[in-house]
TrEMBL record:
Protein name: NfeD-like C-terminal domain-containing protein
Transmembrane domains' residue ranges: 12-42, 48-68
UniProt entry keywords in alphabetical sequence: Membrane, Transmembrane, Transmembrane helix
Domain of life of the source: Bacteria
Organism lineage string: Bacteria, Pseudomonadati, Pseudomonadota, Alphaproteobacteria, Rhodobacterales
Length: 88
């Protein structure tokens, strides 16, 4: 059942919507991973077992998260400094 490409596409859409609601780039890597699994299943027409699909999803999500972390990181040598306390 979970090897159907549109299930992974729907999961990617739900995770992307969840990323918009809960900011912080937490779910974006997972959404990209689910989308890439959906595209692999759609384009290649593979029928894979659930553990293998979850392994591919985890690997692609990790790679997407690492790339996003590099894209949205502060420039080298720059440090965030807070001069005001939130409670003031």
């Amino acid at each position: 059942m979970l090897s159907i490409w549109w299930v992974w596409g729907a999961a990617a859409l739900v995770l992307a919507i969840l990323e918009v609601v809960v900011s912080g780039f937490v779910f974006l890597g997972f959404a990209i991973g689910a989308f890439l699994v959906a595209m692999l299943l759609l384009n290649l027409g593979l029928v894979l077992s659930l553990p293998l699909l979850l392994l591919i999803f985890a690997a692609l999500s990790l790679v997407a998260w690492l790339i996003l972390r590099q894209l949205f990181a502060l420039p080298r040598g720059q440090v965030k400094r807070f001069h005001d306390d939130v409670n003031d």
